[in-house]
Design goal:
The complex is a heterodimer of chains A (185) and B (137). Chain A has 185 residues and is mostly helical. Chain A has 9 helices and no strands. Chain A has a domain at 122-185. The N and C termini of chain A lie far apart (40 Å). Chain B has helices spanning 2-19, 25-32, 38-59, 80-96, 100-108, 114-131. The chains are: A mainly alpha (185), B mainly alpha (137). Chain A: The chain crosses the membrane at residues 12-28, 62-81, 126-143, 163-184.
Chain lengths: 185, 137
């Protein structure tokens, strides 16, 4: 059946993400994928350095189980349900190739020029991945949530703070793509 | 048993993230270039169903499976932390092409390079914890 291997269209994926949120609500939890980062810091002993990590992380172990599940889900989907290529807008693919030398659009799931085993250890790529990660971790905690916590959970509950956060996500993303990318690639 | 439930929900979420390509750097780049409706459709359709569902839950007072109240706590009020924190998050999201959920999914999908992003995200979370009292909220 082709729906197993073909990418799922947005109108299938979106409702299934909403379903994930409802399933978590039904078992008494909240959908948010950046809280596990805080739980992990706490479990690793960050409570010694900052009050922010001094809480009963064992009570939050459930979100580490969701993370473990997401890892397994990624394994299953990439190995048994996908040809691991992503077809984006051809104009965007061409622009990536022309402006930034990223040729792997339409052929890979992630740009091999950055994420490929032979490439990610290059200093520029390491910096992109590390700084990107730091900004995501710092920003998510500062804003009190990430895409799942604010853009899905918070907005579904009509929370104004989540709308402000999501506007922030786009301000940051547009600044990065339009002003900072031309400087680094 | 409860932990198996959380694990299964995680597996489901992981498959959805990967299959919808929301975990792909290319899709995130394309979204910020307004190159396709795909990501907007995913978030938009999740939201339409999410808003309707949460309204139904509130009006019908639907509880959790064990009968307690659902975790629909209102967010703390404020502007600065959401706008500044959100913008910082957006910079990182567009740079690494990964938000927290997809990071884990990509690790399972066999991209060891994503460990650098996950390490960075843990470091960023730790830095926030250290600096929290000095930041405007």
């Amino acid at each position: 059946m082709s729906w197993i291997n073909d990418p799922w269209p947005w109108y299938v994926a979106g409702p299934l993400i909403a379903l994930t949120m409802f399933l978590l609500l039904l078992v008494g939890k909240q959908f948010g994928m950046s809280s596990p980062l805080r739980t992990t810091c706490s479990a690793l002993g960050a409570g010694k350095a900052a009050d922010f990590f001094r809480f009963d992380w064992k009570a939050e172990r459930w979100n580490l189980m969701v993370v473990l599940g997401a890892i397994i889900g990624g394994f299953i989907a990439s190995n048994f349900m996908s040809d691991n290529t992503v077809e984006i807008n051809p104009e965007v693919a061409q622009q990536l190739s022309q402006d930034y030398g990223i040729e792997s659009a339409q052929e890979a799931y992630l740009p091999t020029e950055i994420f490929g085993l032979e490439n990610f250890m290059e200093p520029t790529n390491l910096a992109i991945l590390l700084i990107g990660g730091i900004l995501v971790g710092f920003g998510a905690r500062y804003a009190g949530g990430c895409t799942s916590g604010h853009a899905i959970s918070g907005l579904s509950n009509l929370q104004l703070p989540s709308l402000i956060a999501v506007i922030g996500f786009f301000i940051g993303g547009l600044i990065m793509i339009n002003f900072i990318y031309p400087l680094i690639f | 048993m409860r932990y198996i439930t959380y694990l299964v929900i995680g597996v489901f979420f992981g498959i959805v993230m990967f299959k919808s390509e929301a975990a792909s750097w290319f899709r995130i780049y394309e979204m910020f270039q307004f190159g396709s409706f795909h990501m907007y459709g995913i978030i938009g359709s999740a939201l339409v169903i999410g808003v309707i569902g949460v309204q139904v839950i509130k009006r019908k007072r639907v509880g959790t499976l064990d009968g307690s109240e659902m975790s629909l706590k209102p967010k703390d009020k404020g502007v600065a932390r959401y706008l500044i924190g959100g913008t910082i998050f957006g910079l990182g999201w567009a740079l690494s092409g990964a938000c927290p959920g997809p990071m884990y999914v990509l690790l399972g999908a066999g991209f060891p390079s994503i460990l650098v992003v996950i390490f960075g995200a843990l470091l960023g979370t730790f830095l926030y914890g250290l600096l929290k009292s000095k930041l405007p909220h």
